[in-house]
Amino acid sequence: MKRKQQGLIAGLAVLGLVAGACSSDSESSVTEAPVVTDAPVVTDAPVVTEPNADGDLVQWALDYTEGTAGMASGDSIKVGYVNQEDYFPENTIGINAAVEFVNNELGGVAGRPLEIVACAIAVAEDGAKCGTEFANNPDIAVVVTGTILVGNKELYDALNTKKPVIVGNGVTADDFTTSAGQAFTAGSPGVVAGMAGFVVSQLGEVKNVAIIAANNAAGQAGADLLFKPVIEKAGIAYTFVGVDDTATAADVASAMTAVGAESADVVVLLVTIQQCINVYDASKALGIDPLIVATGLCFGTPMTDHLAEAGDGGTVPNNWYFGGYGYSYFNPDYESGMQTYLDKVQEYGVPAPGAANLEYTGFAGPSFANVMTLAKFLNQLGPDALDYASIDGKIRGFKGPMMIQAGPLDCGKQVILGLPIFISVCGSQMGIQQYKDGEWLSIADALNGKPIDATKV
Is the pLDDT of residue 34 over 80? Predict the structure, then answer.
């Protein structure tokens, strides 16, 4: 076991998984056949349904944050924010939209406005630089991350015990094993393990699986340590192929042929959205229609735009299954806060520089939710108790419910596939949804009360 854990820590830059489809407060494990909700919503754009009109959506936010309606005033409370903008600009869309919403409509936090102090990371050395700057700045009350691929350990080392940290949308081993802060989602460990449980228990008789993952230590670790053990235990055969992030559709077609995608019962995708697009194109070129189970990385504006350009239409490829955090951008509900998020990100969100469209999916939603949750903590503490120990205690003691993340939280105590190393992971539940003939169907998620608990896979 020790060797297995060391291998995971060494290689697990695990596949950043978007919070595109998540789950709820259920104790369900993966044991039942796929279940479809009675009335799936047909969507090619975010939908906010009645009777939850805008006033009610704001009321949801006031209840969640324990805020006071109105505009914030006075001196700001500063929040350090670290993100790798070149790769994940949607984090900043979610962060900034939430801050505008909190300040303009929810009375700010602890009676004062929130202010984001950003520090971008491009190379590994920037992690230590940003961390040191924030650690030494007495005006920074708390640090929130977006998504970063390099400098993670250096950032957390500089902040540990000096500033409270909310880990945003982690994608590296350090994000899930750091003691500096907590992440309020199931993260990649929960989603990948949950997808494996879904394949084993809810897709009928599966005899062989083709796994296509990123051709790096991260993809290999995600497949080897989070996915393969589950299907091996079930006696299911598998083949594996890695594809480079720079691979073309022709490269992916060759990889799909090599992995036996045309004859596999299920093809599992643990890759970035560009390679998801290439899998779609390669399938068409090969004349095959495999059963696809992918992470939420495979949906979003780039996929939808590509389908439109190809003349195929739809939000994502037809019949694909997607694993995420249990709720849905495309089939929004009121109770999780998803409708509130969609309404307010459309109102306050600003497209990334050079982008024609607002990317409201991907990591934008969880980043928005992290600001809302931070607002809750600061409102509970009040303006005179915003010290390190008080804020850090709120973060580590949070049990949920978490906005647009399924289920209760148990920060630092999640054991997934027997691995107790994910000390910063708070959530354990994830969800599976399917896009079929223009409709998003709840298969096993919070919306139909059947989320998958990764700790029970």
Answer: no
Residue 204's alpha-carbon distances to 11, 180, 208, 302, in angstroms, are 32, 42, 12, 32
- Cis upstream peptide for 34 (omega within 30°): no
152 to 50, 124, 173, 227, 428: CA distances (angstroms): 42, 8, 9, 24, 23
What global pTM score does this model have? 0.87
**In this structure, what token pair is assigned to residue 197?**
């449980």
Q: Is the pLDDT of residue 161 over 70?
A: yes
SS3 4: helix
> What fold does the segment set 43-186+331-428 form as a domain?
Rossmann fold (3.40.50)
CA distance 151 to 121: 8
Q: Phi, psi (5° rounding) for residue 323?
A: -100, 135
Counting beta carbons within 10 angstroms of the beta carbon of residue 407, is it exposed (0 to 12), middle (13 to 18) or buried (19 or more)? buried
In the structure, what pLDDT confidence band is assigned to residue 53 with cuts at 50, 70 and 90?
low
How far apart, in Å, do the first and last CA atoms of the chain sit? 18
Sign of the CA dihedral running 53, 55, 60, 65: positive
SS3 293: strand
DSSP state of 447: G
Whether the Cβ atoms of residue 168 and residue 424 lie closer than 8 Å to each other: no
Q: What DSSP string describes 44-100? A: SS----TT--HHHHHHHHHHHHT--SB---SSPEEEEEEE-TTT-HHHHHHHHHHHH
The predicted-structure confidence for 279-320, as pLDDT tens digits, reads as follows 999 999 999 999 999 998 898 888 999 999 999 999 999 999
| Distance, CA of 402 to CA of 186 (rounded, Å) | 11
What is the residue whose two structure tokens read 């090969």? 286
The tens digit of pLDDT for each residue in 165-215 reads 999 988 888 999 999 999 999 988 899 999 999 999 999 999 999 999 998
Q: What residues does 183 pair with on adjacent strands?
A: 425
Q: For residue 187, what are the contacts with CB-CB under 8 A and spacing of at least 6? A: 14, 17, 170, 175, 176, 422, 425, 427
Give the separation between CA 1 and CA 4, rounded to whole angstroms.
Answer: 5
